[in-house]
UniProtKB/TrEMBL annotation:
Keywords: Acyltransferase, Transferase. PANTHER family: AMINOALKYLPHOSPHONATE N-ACETYLTRANSFERASE-RELATED-RELATED (PTHR43877). PROSITE patterns: GNAT (PS51186). This is GNAT family N-acetyltransferase. The lineage of its organism: Bacteria, Bacillati, Bacillota, Bacilli, Bacillales. InterPro entries: Acyl_CoA_acyltransferase (IPR016181), Bact_Acetyltransf (IPR050832), GNAT_dom (IPR000182). The keyword Transferase applies. Residues 1-139 form the N-acetyltransferase domain. Pfam families: Acetyltransf_1 (PF00583). One of its GO terms (molecular function) is acyltransferase activity, transferring groups other than amino-acyl groups.
Length: 139
């Protein structure tokens, strides 16, 4: 597996991964309301890098560098549990200054467990009753 900065030619594959991963994992959300355009809106102005193997994109992360904040970490559903997410987190940590923060939807138990297994700590739970999330930090 190889990590590199995303470019404009990667956009179709990244949009598809973002949509498919959310539709498969976000059981609490309205998956019919999700579109390919969401990727463009949700990553605007962010630093994006990806993991690929044999010219196939397996996952990506988008970072908001001014705040040392990981905004998105998404892995194609076919590659869950294969180490892609760990590589994306490692590359994110290497790119930013600590402490680094991210938000994880409280209902996303698998992601929460994943982050905690990688050394992330829950700081505070925020959001409205229907969309709670944990702010997590890595030092």
């Amino acid at each position: 597996m190889h990590i590199r900065v995303a470019n404009e030619y990667d956009s179709p594959a990244l949009r598809k991964i973002y949509l498919e991963s959310r539709r498969k994992s976000f059981h609490w959300a309205d998956i019919e309301a999700m579109t390919l355009d969401d990727f463009d809106k949700h990553t605007e102005g962010e630093y994006i890098f990806l993991v690929e193997e044999n010219k196939q994109i397996l996952g990506f992360a988008s970072l908001y560098l001014p705040d040392n904040f990981i905004h998105n970490v998404f892995v194609h559903p076919d590659f869950f549990g294969k180490g892609v997410g760990g590589l994306l987190l490692y590359a994110s940590i290497e790119k930013m200054k600590k402490p680094i923060r991210l938000k994880c939807v409280s209902e996303n138990h698998a992601a929460m467990k994943f982050y905690e297994s990688k050394g992330w700590k829950k700081i505070v739970e925020e959001g409205n009753p229907h969309e709670k999330y944990w702010v997590m930090e890595y030092n």
